[in-house]
């Protein structure tokens, strides 16, 4: 089974096209104004129009309100929503409201953090294990931080899942081998500066997922 790959935080046509050409299964659009990857609705709409049908459009949110969600789902024609810092009860409501595949991000630093995933059974469709960012950090993701992959050893995943946090072209093959992740997600590992995606790094990352 080929490993699926999401390139997150795309904001330009050339880098979006590189993700599609390189074989990404998912592309991520960030709707969170403090992020250097944040997209307005018009820009998201234009990018979404370039995405072929076999590639899923994922909107990335931080505990969003209904107005933001509704407008982003419409503008970017989202296939899935990825929710950070969103309680299981609210996640279930968003899943029902949008009718979209719903991913719950679980921030991981210790083994105990993984237990949060169980609370999303019945509320989400997929868990995204991401590295926990430091208290007071501006962003809950997209900071290039990695968690200890061995924490996932023998963990009984309550839902389909994905691995994220600090992945890059040099370490993603080892991450897949070590964790058996069915889907990997990257943002800053394929950037030349925060929010600036690099087409060569995107291509290298996607190639490495198949190695
Ligand atoms: O990327 C962002 O700017 C962002 C902002 C707010 C919430 C989540 C965000 N990113 C989520 C992602 O899916 C990233 O791809 C994931 O955290 C991994 O990031 P990185 O460690 O930089 O590869």
TrEMBL record:
Keywords: Amino-acid biosynthesis, Aromatic amino acid biosynthesis, Isomerase, Tryptophan biosynthesis. Belongs to the TrpF family. It comes from Sphingomonas metalli. InterPro entries: Aldolase_TIM (IPR013785), PRAI_dom (IPR001240), RibuloseP-bd_barrel (IPR011060), TrpF_fam (IPR044643). One of its GO terms (biological process) is L-tryptophan biosynthetic process. The keyword Transmembrane does not apply. It is an enzyme of class 5 (isomerase). GO terms for molecular function: phosphoribosylanthranilate isomerase activity. Its EC number is 5.3.1.24. This is N-(5'-phosphoribosyl)anthranilate isomerase. Pathway: Amino-acid biosynthesis; L-tryptophan biosynthesis; L-tryptophan from chorismate: step 3/5. It catalyses: N-(5-phospho-beta-D-ribosyl)anthranilate = 1-(2-carboxyphenylamino)-1-deoxy-D-ribulose 5-phosphate.
